[in-house]
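[Target chain]
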Amino acid sequence: MAFTDSPISRRALAGLLLAAALPATPALAAPRSLRGTVSFRERMALPPGAIVEVKLLDVSLADAPARTIAETRVSGRRIPAPWTLRFDSRRIDPRHSYALQARITHRGQLLFITTERHSVFTGGPDNTDIWVQRVAGQEQPPAPANSPVGSWRLASLGGAETPASIATTLVIAADGKVSGRGGCNGFGGTATIQGRVIRFSRMVSTMMACEPDKMAQEQRFLKTLERVHRWSFERRTGRLVLLDRGGRPLMALTSQ
């Protein structure tokens, strides 16, 4: 069969020959992402500048190093630390095994790392909420250097030392929940902490009646909490100092 000698036929033939000569176009990248958190069980604050690293690894070969598919870094300012890891789905082989690895470092020093396998792409829910363990030999950073989170006892109020016979306590949890005893009644509320700024909600307390001196200290303490705007620590004593908006000390508390 001969091709008709016409402009249309020649153009069609040229197009067929050109298509045959070109290499096959590879499949376009199919971006995917995993999301989760990194947490640890210790009640401690990370040093400023700590970095949380999360990697997606191919762990199929037991006798060879794991191959990194993707990785991300986020700030360790907030724990649990939320992360998002983006990767190319073309790099995932359904015949292989994959897992997530996380670690926390500070200035190149390893502080925490995963010790259990966090498998993904197994056909079930992906295990993306990662728990890390503190590396042996790493001392816990002292809480006073980093955070007011902890359990405290009132030592002074309005510049005057408080009597040891009246126990006024304040517990600030990592999630912002606040509890304690004013000296007579228990109370609860919340705290919002952003850097050196701390603001307390109005506390809700029980309504028992006690000795006048205990009631007086309790009422002053709870009213003063509402004026707190900042926090700091006394270097000499290690006391937590709560200050007003102008930086004036309102109360000091000792760790318990």
